[in-house]
Amino acid sequence: xxxxxxxxxxxxxxxxxxxxxxxxxxxxxxxxxxxxxxxxxxxxxxxxxxxxxxxxxxxxxxxxxxxxxxxxxxxxxxxxxxxxxxxxxxxxxxxxxxxxxxxxxxxxxxxxxxxxxxxxxxxxxxxxxxxxxxxxxxxxxxxxxxxxxxxxxxxxxxxxxxxxxxxxxxxxxxxxxxxxxxxxxxxxxxxxxxxxxxxxxxxxxxxxxxxxxxxxxxxxxxxxxxxxxxxxxxxxxxxxxxxxxxxxxxxxxxxxxxxxxxxxxxxxxxxxxxxxxxxxxxxxxxxxxxxxxxxxxxxxxxxxxxxxxxxxxxxxxxxxxxxxxxxxxxxxxxxxxxxxxxxxxxxxxxxxxxxxxxxxxxxx
Amino acid sequence: xxxxxxxxxxxxxxxxxxxxxxxxxxxxxxxxxxxxxxxxxxxxxxxxxxxxxxxxxxxxxxxxxxxxxxxxxxxxxxxxxxxxxxxxxxxxxxxxxxxxxxxxxxxxxxxxxxxxxxxxxxxxxxxxxxxxxxxxxxxxxxxxxxxxxxxxxxxxxxxxxxxxxxxxxxxxxxxxxxxxxxxxxxxxxxxxxxxxxxxxxxxxxxxxxxxxxxxxxxxxxxxxxxxxxxxxxxxxxxxxxxxxxxxxxxxxxxxxxxxxx
Lengths: 364, 261
Known about the structure:
The structure holds two protein chains of two kinds.
Chain A: E1 9-16, E2 26-33, E3 38-42, H1 49-57, E4 64-69, E5 72-73, E6 85-87, H2 99-109, H3 114-127, H4 143-155, E7 161-165, H5 173-190, E8 193-198, H6 201-207, E9 210-215, E10 218-223, H7 225-230, H8 235-240, E11 245-252, E12 255-257, E13 262-264, E14 270-276, E15 282-283, E16 291-303, E17 308-314, E18 319-324, E19 336-342, E20 347-349
Parallel strand pairs in A: 3-8, 3-9, 6-7, 7-8
Antiparallel strand pairs in A: 1-2, 1-4, 4-5, 9-10, 11-12, 11-14, 12-13, 14-20, 15-19, 16-17, 16-19, 17-18
Helix pairs in contact in A: 2-3, 2-4, 3-4
Chain B: H1 2-27, H2 29-33, H3 50-57, H4 59-92, H5 98-110, H6 113-127, H7 133-157, H8 161-169, H9 174-203, H10 206-211, H11 219-229, H12 234-259
Helix pairs in contact in B: 3-12, 4-7, 4-9, 4-11, 5-7, 7-9, 8-9, 9-12
């Protein structure tokens, strides 16, 4: 491997408007990816994350904006001269070539010598533990094996960044988890920059150094997984990443008025949403001043092994979710209960975009 | 259970009968070609290979066979090249009127042969192409082109468009992608199109009758004039040769299809 360090990728005011579309698919997006960072672009389908990745890769023309790879603008460079590794959801292996020939492909384009190709192909296949399958055709490999060949092919020419477009999307849950580990290991072994697109928030939280949450063509929030989870910048981020209980209303003097009750919270005055994660709620009344307590009716209890998901309906008619680490006295469906949480466990966010509550959130 | 097996037997019987009906009249020429008599009598009263001897020695037959083979080879090359390029263009573009263009390429298959023949005759007469090799190549290419476009087009539809992106992402230029990725995948389709083009040209009679001159005749034209002007059982040998060549090539198409990935 020539240069162990990854490249920096900086996206500046990147915009893509498809012909005939009323609004841009990607709207003045700014994003900084540090050298060697694992950056995930997360969002629902149609949020612009894949279009952004395709523009970085060179598969889509840029309407306006810049894409800087180590301070060189590559936005107008054809895809085959960008020297970035790319992994696709559908593997995109060449069906008429063996695993080894697939991995050799990028080296052949770069006119690498035969002996060198053989050595590096073997090395790359070994890296993904597929050395013994070198002579198989893609049709003779399982989905997980095919994607590992695709990974080997994408890194064999030592690109300084690897772009991954929902690489685990076509795999079943078990394979997905093992390949997640594989990708994570590859990232730390190679030390190159990864830009990873997914709509799966668990995947994003598990793999990434940082996550950029996309919505309607713009980035809603960029932050580490824990920043996004603990201090979401908006209701969208809070509900997209993990489960949330959301109470909307108006904050006045450290109290959120939902219309039917007052909840203690930490946020500036004005309209806002109080977000509380389900594992921060517990069944039973709070005992001190720093807690909120609501009465509710249990509507469903779902046993999930390590924990229980308890669905409740608060007295004002809104629903909530409690994640309960299986204590001795489980709540039963239909039972009247008290639900409580520490006020400090809640985050106040705005209904729309910007942060209202804490200031530790990285602005988008 | 038994009703079902009876039904199956009846269906198999009908299938065999239809198959025989399609094939047997054609195959009658094979025993006649090995007849020792100088007539079309069937079944032949004696056997021999005299008709083949005549076919492969008499210059009018031999020349027309060579004309047909050369013509078919040239038409195969021209039609395969043009047809593959057309199919690639059709596959890569999606503009308004794309369907109409598709239809245009199919036109020679749909328009009655005699109409194409008359039209080409009228046009070629003005251009002085009647009775020329160029005229034959142009006319047969028109007829062969749809087979290439259809076969290559079908092969291209099986090429995952993401492969092109993958190749580009791995550093392959457009031409390198075509040479190393697209073409190897569509090769069976190109081959099938080429074989169909060859057979189309080799078998063609209607258009050729209009384009021919007494000096330049293809084998089917020579056979046609033979059967209308004289009673010469050599035509049975000629028919068998055409039958064997065409069947062998179409069998080859079937084989390439089967071996395709």
